[in-house]
Sequence to fold (428 residues):
Amino acid sequence: MIATLFLLLFLMLLFAAPVFVALSFSSLMSFGFFSNMNLMVIMQRMLGGIDKFSLISVPFFILGANVMKNGGIANRILIWVRVWVGHLRGGIAFSTEVACMFFGAVSGSSPATVVAIGGLMYPALKRNGYHDGFATGLITSSGSVALLIPPSISAIIYGAVTGVSVGALFMAGVGAGLLYGLFYLCYSAWYAYKNKIPQDKRTSWKERGKATKEAAWALGIPVIIMGGIYGGIFTPTEASGVSAVYAILVSMFIYREMDFKKLLKTCIDSAETTAQVMMLLAAASAFGWILTVGQVPQALGNWLASANVTRVTFLLLTNVILLIAGMFIDGSSAIIIMVPLLYPLSIRLGVNPVHYGVIMVANAAIGMFTPPFGMNLFVAQPITGNKMIAIIRGVMPFVFISIIALIIITYWSSLSLFLPRLVYGGMI
Fold:
């Protein structure tokens, strides 16, 4: 049964079938031919996979991201960042990266970050002397930071599949996300110095004050989300609803860049995206259950024990497997497929489940822009107008930089666990 399951999955993915179709079809066919149980069990498992309280936050964060993209919030965040750091050597690149981090912190969506920030910053990067490759690579890779900095939809998915606290995962993602951002900023500074990129004129304190005043309502979103979670005012799930409503009110009644017609279209687009995510989760739940029934995690665990695989080696194998998977499927899909296999083994080897979640999400972030099929590559193409081969060349330095950061995240657990342990104490 298990051999048929993986064979069908591989063949479906090879022929470019959607991931949820590949997971559903392989699960149904293998279970139907090799089990005497009623096929309705698969349907029950699929429904059970999405019948989780934590997943309520997914549609709200998706809606919030789309509202912020279409309602003028992203643009004001960008302007605010630029007036503060634009005068530095590499300032435009800094503005792009920091804006992606801020927008990621309020949207939780990597493609949305690329669209919202990339569309505004790519022309600015070009005007200031940055080459096509660097500008495209920076925009494409910087959007991936959104998967780490809370709220992160990938972290929510990992928490839903494993039962790990989403709040703890959000907090753990802060340190990892900041490390990624720091590495990108250092590379941008080196690139600007090497290529003698001109600096922007230093803005006055009056201009900075004006930009801060304009962006105050936009900057309130991460404060509300993280402050509310850390302060115990509401749960991450409740935070998603609050942030979506807040974004709608700010976009419609304060910035007035969104009317009811535009809001309706935004809601429809968000509903379509949510449906895709939920179908993927449902299919993955059935797939993971069949693996459990087939005792695949137990067999792998026994093999690891007999082979004397250490925690260090296991974490390295996790990174290699997920990086390869990220070349062909999106990060969230890779997490969904691999968690049933790898998570039980990580627990068996004593890996902290919160730290392991950050490792998986960090791999998912890299997978979003890893050639040949990283989602952000295709999102960036219409924004930049560049050929795919040029985009791939541009992202490769950022792939290598990200892998270095990933190694640090993998083996320096305190970086991820500092904040969760500060809040939750001995529970993490």
